[in-house]
Amino acid sequence: MTYKIIIADDHPLFRAALKQAVGQAVDDVEVIEADTIAELQRAVLENSEADLVLLDLNMPGAHGFSGLVFMRGQYPGLPVVMISGTEDIQVIRKAIDYGASGFIPKSTSLQLIAEAIQAVLNGDVWLPADVQGRIDRLDAETCEFSEKLATLTPQQFRVLGMLMEGLLNKQIAYELDVSEATIKAHITAVFRKLGVRNRTQAVIAVQQLEVERPVTPE
């Protein structure tokens, strides 16, 4: 059996490291690489039979866990393992609650990453040994919003991401090569699905999925 594994990370060197770990995990594998959320969406569309996605938490085009939530909503049968430079227990907790099949800190050795990949391909959920059993559940309100976000279509998700960046309707229309009327229709649908009334409420709601970074003393 030939496995298909998608590596989504915007750092070429770490993609190379993950590719090496994948090679250690399985003998017969095809690796597809993506460096943005848009590239990831394209990769999944072109490889619908993929077995696993290794997804960097801080991918261009996503806000916090929004990329993970979107993937789980659109492709519920495709396991997604989060990759991150953080080892914060709260971040790991959220990743699992949002549907990740595992969480691999970037400090993890190649051998252990390979073991994690093998475990997830076998149907297990993989977590660093020192955090297993310490995962609390997310509050109901945050989970409810993630379920709403997961109902967005790929195009609606792209539009929402551009709203988060502060782009105007005409700028979004230009970027996506569609009419402003089409963008307005997408935005109306996004607001309806998320249960918000305007851009500000949408931004505030999506910020629930952002990863809180520790404040460092000046």
From TrEMBL:
List of residues that carry 4-aspartylphosphate: D56
Domain Response regulatory, chain residue ranges per copy: 4-121
CDD domains: LuxR_C_like, REC_NarL-like
Species in which this protein is naturally found: Alkalimarinus sediminis
Protein's name in the database: Response regulator transcription factor
UniProt entry tagged with the keyword Phosphoprotein: yes
Any one GO BP annotation for this protein: regulation of DNA-templated transcription
UniProtKB keywords: DNA-binding, Phosphoprotein
InterPro entries: CheY-like_superfamily, EvgA-like, NreC/VraR/RcsB-like_REC, Sig_transdc_resp-reg_C-effctor, Sig_transdc_resp-reg_receiver, Tscrpt_reg_LuxR_C
